[in-house]
Amino acid sequence: MANFATPAFLASLKAIYPSGGPSTLAYAGALPNPWALITAVTFSASNAPEAVPVVFKYALEELKEEQRAQGTPDETAAKEQLLLARKIREGVLQSGLLSGMPRVTMPVNLRETKVLRDTNKHMTEFDKSGEQLFRSMYRDTADSVQNLLDSAYPDLGWWCNTIGYGVTYGGTDALTQVESTYAIVAALIAVDAPRQVGWHLANARHGGASLDEARAVRRIAMEVAQLVGVTWRGGVPDVEP
Fold first, then answer.
1. Left if phi > 0, otherwise alpha if psi is -120 to 50, otherwise beta: which for 203?
2. Which of 130, 81, 134 is nearest to 107 (CA)?
3. Whole-angstrom Cα distance, residue 102 to residue 45?
4. Which stretch of DSSP H or E encloses residue 56?
5. Are 35 and 17 within 8 A, CB to CB?
6. What b/e sequence results for 149-159 when a residue is b if at least 16 CB atoms lie within 10 Å of its CB, and e otherwise?
7. Residue 101: how many CB atoms within 10 A of its CB?
8. Residue 43 — pLDDT band, cuts 50, 70, 90?
C-alpha cells in the first residue's frame, strides 16, 4: 500500500485543503495545513499503516524545505519538526479508539521521551474535562448523543465521555480540538460509520472549521480510503452548510 502514496498523490491531497482557513488561525500551534494528519490517520484506519511513514517523510521534507527557504533557526526548526511528528502520532493514536491501535512508528530522533498525558490526574477530573470537550464538540446535540450512548449501555456512555473525550481526545494539547475532530472524521470514513461521520463533520464546524475546510477533510479521507480499496455501503454524508 505504501507504493500508492506517491509524491504526486500526496501533493494532490495537500492542494485540496484551503490555505489560511479559520480553523488554522483560531488555535495556537495548529498546523497551517493539516492534510498530512488527515491522510496518515486515514491510511492507518484503512488498514494500510505502512503508508503512514511515507506520508510523514513527505510532509517532513516539505517542512524542511520551507524552513531552509525562510532561514528558520535550527532550534526553532527542530521544534517545528517535532510538532509535526507529534501531531501525526497523536492523531493516529486517537483514531485507534475507532479503528484499532496503530501499528506504525516515527523516526527515532522525533520520538517522544515522556508521556504527554498527566498520569497523576484523578479519574473524576477526566470525567469533568471529558464532558466539557464533549459539549464543546457536540454543542446543542450533546445531551441527545450522550443519552443515546447511556441508553445503549451505561458503561459505553461513561467510557466515551471519560476515556474517549477525557483521556484520549482531551488528555493532551498535542492536537487542537478541530484537529482531533479531523482525525475522528478520517477514521470514521475509513471504517464506514456514516452516522458518526455526519456528527463529527458538524463537530468540525463547531470547532471553528469553515465549510470549505470540513469538505476538504471529507474529500481527502475519501480519496485515501478509495485508493486502498475501502467502499461505502451507503455513501459518505456530506457537510451540512
1. alpha
2. 81
3. 8
4. helix 52-70
5. yes
6. beeeeeeebeb
7. 10
8. very high
* Residue 96: its H or E element: helix 74-99
Say what the pLDDT of residue 2 is: 63
Distance of alpha carbon 185 from alpha carbon 205, whole angstroms = 12
Average pLDDT taken over every residue of the chain: 94
Q: What is the pTM of this model?
A: 0.95
Cβ neighbours around 71 below 10 Å, total: 7
Residues 192-229, buried b or exposed e (16+ Cβ, 10 A)? Answer: ebeebbbbbbbbbbbbbbbeebbbbbbbbbbebbebbe
Amino acid identity for residue 201 in this structure: L
83-87, 88-92, 102-106: least confident range:
102-106
Nine cell digits for residue 228: 486502498
Of 99, 67, 53, 95, the residue nearest 217 (C-alpha): 95
DSSP E strands in the chain: the ranges are none
Q: Which H/E stretch holds residue 79?
A: helix 74-99
Residue 1 predicted with pLDDT over 60: no
What's the whole-number mean pLDDT along residues 105-113?
A: 78
Q: What average pLDDT does this structure show over 175-190? A: 97
Other beta carbons within 10 Å of 87: 23
Q: What is the mean pLDDT of residues 137-155?
A: 97
pLDDT at 73 over 90: yes
* CA 210 remoteness from chain centre: 16
Locus of grid cell 455501503: 233
